[in-house]
Design brief:
The protein has 133 residues and is mainly beta. It has a single domain, classed as Sandwich (Immunoglobulin-like). It contains 1 helix and 7 strands. The strands form 2 sheets. A 4-stranded antiparallel β-sheet has the order 4-3-6-7, with no helix packed on it. The chain has a 3-stranded antiparallel β-sheet with strand order 1-2-5, with no helix packed on it. It is elongated. The termini are far apart.
């Protein structure tokens, strides 16, 4: 393969990964809370789908950075539910269908859902989700 072509393919792939569109909601389902929150998912345990409620406070300037991630018991990333550099403020509820980022169903077990936020201070919250057959 031509070296110039290989460099072009690599540069294009690296550029596209930097501009990938955000994951997660773009509009709120309720009023903006005064602080970040992550509530227990429901139903829990779940078989098909569970709902994860969380809130993002308003900020004075730009919208805060927010990530809502699902990890397995070894803290390996399983699914990215929300990943926005400019997440809108408000109350949200996102579904998790029990699938990983590869779209395969995850095995039954205990999973940890973590909310990371910054506005202007950092916030981390964790809840457990139990997946059954």
């Amino acid at each position: 393969m031509n070296l110039k072509l290989l460099i072009t393919i690599f540069a294009t792939t690296a550029f596209l990964s930097c501009i990938a569109s955000p994951v997660g909601p773009v509009s709120s389902s309720g009023n903006a809370p005064p602080v970040f929150f992550l509530n227990q998912n429901y139903p829990n345990p779940f078989t098909d789908t569970t709902w994860v409620p969380y809130g993002v406070p308003p900020t004075g300037g730009s919208n805060p950075f927010v990530s809502l991630l699902v990890f397995d018991k070894y803290h390996n990333l399983v699914r990215t539910l929300a990943y926005n550099y400019h997440h809108p403020a408000g109350s949200f509820t996102l579904p998790w269908d029990g699938r990983g980022d590869d779209y395969y169903l995850v095995p039954p077990g205990i999973y940890v859902i973590e909310l990371y936020g910054s506005s202007p201070t950092s916030f981390i919250a964790r809840i457990a989700a139990i997946r059954t057959k």
